[in-house]
Design brief:
about 375 residues, 6-stranded parallel beta sheet, binds uridine-diphosphate-N-acetylglucosamine
Length: about 375
């Protein structure tokens, strides 16, 4: 088999691609790791490769930051000649960032089979760039590798064929479970002088929450009220840093973005996590830590029905009341099935052990 091209571009991708690379390596399948360079800082990229033991990328596209169209276009025009050179039979993309959709589109037109890890998640919020990326990536993919039954339901409702859909579980949780013991050994809590279960964690980076300074200030004020009872550690994403202007309420401790292991250690020791991230909703569920999601919708509803997550929107009163309730009565820890550390193995099996799915031109 020709080498499988595996694509990663932004921080949440790195955590997802590692178990896929490992699973192919265990099956003696050669991979070419392509880093698009959407995230390029040590804090957003290099540290993740080092801590997770991901080998240096075989190819780097170095696209950097830009508007959506420019960033997506740069990835596409750099990825196309690479595929012409490598002529892969299979390209694997993960998640929902601009690099994901850009590479899926180029790969599909190159004639390669495209596999999308984390297919079928839907927020049904078309104002979210990631939702557009998810829908378009699934549409051009041959293999739809789903992390939860709700994602499978979405794909079936949208008319995808059964031979394309594989419920494989959650690769991000493979990485979490593999690294939790190392994370617990980190000195971060001691270094920050934090007692376990004495603090909360906050993160915000969704454009809808942080690009408008007024909205960000409203959310920071709500966090400030919560921080009066439960101090909050807030690692600041570069996008958020750019819009944080007003004075930060007391009790909120802004720190630089953390590496993977330190952020895992921080979450694992928290009483509560407040976030607008997708992945953190899943990680807190597996860690059994209460999570409040400061959004009006989630593409990961299984964390609400079978996890510790609660959707609280952006109304400050609702956020503060929900935090008070959760701090007084934390939800019971639960974990969705197939979030068991073996998703990477199931992905390799779906891609290697079964006949290739039919293409529309191949159907009767
Ligand atoms: C991207 C993803 C989002 C994901 C997030 C995780 C899209 C549409 N969005 O959003 O789904 O949750 O990554 O972090 O793909 N920057 C740096 N250093 C870097 C990279 C970016 O400082 O290494 C700054 C730049 O100023 C840039 C801004 O962060 O303009 C935003 O980066 P970008 O990749 O465009 O989107 P994110 O907001 O990170």
């Amino acid at each position: 088999m020709r080498p499988v091209v595996c694509v990663a571009g932004a921080r949440p991708n790195f955590v997802k691609i590692k178990p896929v690379l490992d699973a192919f390596a265990r099956r003696d399948i050669e991979t070419v790791l392509v880093h698009t360079g959407q995230h390029y800082d040590a804090a957003m990229s290099g540290q993740f490769f080092a801590e997770l033991g991901i080998r240096p990328p075989d190819r780097s596209l170095d696209v950097g930051s830009a508007s959506h169209a420019v960033q997506t276009g740069r990835v596409m025009s750099s990825f196309e000649p690479l595929l012409e050179e490598l002529q892969p039979e299979l390209v694997v993309v993960v998640g929902d960032v601009n690099s994901t959709v850009a590479c899926a589109l180029v790969a599909a037109k190159s004639g390669a089979y495209v596999a999308h890890v984390e297919a079928g998640l839907r927020s049904r919020d078309w104002s979210m760039p990631e939702e557009i990326n998810r829908v378009v990536t699934d549409r051009v993919s041959d293999y739809l590798l789903a992390s939860s039954p709700d994602a499978v339901d979405n794909l079936q409702t949208e008319g995808y064929r059964e031979d394309q859909i594989h419920l494989v579980g959650n690769v991000m949780i493979d990485t979490l479970l593999a690294n939790l013991p190392r994370a617990r050994d980190r000195s971060l809590l001691r270094d920050l002088r934090l007692e376990p279960h004495s603090y909360g964690v906050a993160t915000l980076h969704r454009p809808s929450n942080v690009d408008d300074g007024g909205m960000l200030q409203t959310l920071m004020a709500a966090l400030g009220t919560i921080a009066a009872d439960c101090p909050l550690v807030f690692p600041v994403h570069p996008r958020t840093r750019a819009s944080l202007s007003a004075a930060v309420p007391p009790g909120i401790w802004l720190i630089e973005p953390l590496g993977y292991l330190d952020f895992l250690a921080l979450q694992a020791g928290a009483r509560i996590v407040l976030t607008d991230s997708g992945g953190i909703q899943e990680e807190t569920t597996v860690l059994g830590v209460p999570c409040l999601t400061l959004r009006d919708n989630t593409e990961r509803p299984i964390t609400l029905t079978e996890g510790t997550n609660r959707l609280v929107g952006r109304n400050p009163t609702t956020i503060v009341e929900a935090a008070e309730e959760v701090l007084a009565r934390p939800p019971e820890p639960r974990r969705p099935s197939l979030w068991d550390g073996k998703a990477g193995v199931r992905i390799a099996s779906a891609l290697l052990d079964q006949p290739r799915p039919l293409r529309p031109t191949q159907q009767a």
